[in-house]
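Weekly puzzle thread! Below is a chain. First person to post its structure in token form gets bragging rights.
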Amino acid sequence: MDFYLSATGETTREIVIQRSRFICTLKRIDGFDDALSFVKNVKKKYSDATHNCYAFISNAAGTEQRFSDDGEPQGTAGQPMLEVLKKKGIFMTAAVVTRYFGGVKLGAGGLVSAYTRAVAETVENAKIVKNVVGVSLKIKCGYEMYNALLQALKDNVFATLSTDFADNVKMTIAVPKEDADNIEKDITCALLGQVSVLKGATAYYVFE
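Winning reply:
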């Protein structure tokens, strides 16, 4: 796929339903093991809670999925949480909903609604970004060409990965894969050929 959505950083939101507290912690993850580590850390933080239910999608294709009801009736917590992430197309993201029981039973329908709402509201309050398939370009030029390089880039979509000012200017940027050839031509033309541009591997990047 050409892109996917994901959370950035970590976002926490709490709702109260019938005196039960539902605390959702949403976080960008970097794969399956990172997701499990995140879940473990949240469970440790809220070790006195009644339940720590979770759901995550841990790959960019959206096919690697896990969830847990953590003692809630089957199908009332983890699966509804996962459905929120799937419907919104949010991958490489994990959600843990911590519940402190308030003394009032919500029933199966009430639990599904509560866990769904906890994740949905947290997603609404989180920063969600678009991760686009792109390639890196390693650019090397003389100092006298640096301003021309910036001018060549200013009207293009790109993300600066690194800049090194040594004997020459070395700049690594990421650009959308579909634009890579044209941007490379723009740079070469603007710098009158006095530049080296090397393409790197394909990966997902966030272009603000």
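Puzzle host: Confirmed. Bonus trivia for everyone else. The chain has five helices and ten strands.
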